Amino acid sequence: MHTREMRLRQTILDTLAFEPSIDASRIRVIVVDDIVTLFGEVCSYAEKIAADSAVQQIKGVRGIKQEIQVKCPKHRECGDDQIAERVRNILAWDVSLPADMVRVTVERGWVTLSGQVAWNFQKLAAADAVRRLSGVTGITNAIAVQPCRDVTGIKDRIEAALRRTAELNARRIRVEVVGGWVRLEGSVDAWYKRGVAERAAWAASGVTSVENCLTVR
């Protein structure tokens, strides 16, 4: 491992250790060509996501390979039927989600969400509500965003949103739009900014899918 990679690895370890929602002693880190691999075991899916999110914020990270496993403590283990019931209940209470639009299946703690919603923020809200439930070992978010009849002006709205976002250099990002499909190309200077750009694209009305091809430089 090169000196720069060793420094980056130590920064990641320090960041994980500083985050109170993560038990960093159970997570191991490998860095090769600024691509980070996280592995080990954590007690909840929420902790796994927190580790991923923390590493995304670190300058110099060009990619993340997520291999952390979720292993629930014995006293928090639940049957799939119990998890499914909890998921349905929490989604039913979420005011951002349309009633009865999201379907739930659970296999060995892994939750699959399907159905259709009007906006991507609703799709994300469903997964965000579920990830904090005990017993959940992973989530597949297969919820679709409904097509919009009026797709005019999507490219202009996305480009304007990128220009408004202080964290992004919009001149380095190219936007391609076909119907409700959006492709982002170009580069950003930090891994987490790929997500910032993607959220800006999803916020435009009429967008049904986003292909994020941004690189980190």
Would you mind describing this structure in some detail?
With 217 residues, this protein is an alpha/beta fold. The chain is 35% helix and 29% strand. It has helices at residues 3-18, 45-56, 80-92, 120-131, 154-164, 191-202, and strands at residues 27-32, 35-42, 63-70, 102-107, 110-117, 138-141, 144-145, 173-178, 181-188, 209-212, 215-216. Strands 4, 5, 6 and 7 form a 4-stranded mixed β-sheet that branches. Strands 8, 9, 10 and 11 form a 4-stranded mixed β-sheet that branches. Strands 1-2-3 form a 3-stranded mixed β-sheet. A hairpin with a 2-residue loop joins β1 (27-32) and β2 (35-42).
Taken in chain order, the helices and strands follow as HEEHEHEEHEEHEEHEE
Domain count:
3
Structural class: alpha/beta
Counting DSSP E segments of at least 2 residues, the number of strands comes to 11
Fraction of residues in H or I helices: 25-40%
How would you state the average pLDDT, rounded?
93
**Can you name the CATH architecture of the largest domain?**
2-Layer Sandwich
* Main CATH class of the largest domain: Alpha Beta
Largest sheet: 4 strands, mixed
pLDDT < 50 stretches: none
Instruction: Note the beta-strand portion.
Output: 25-35%
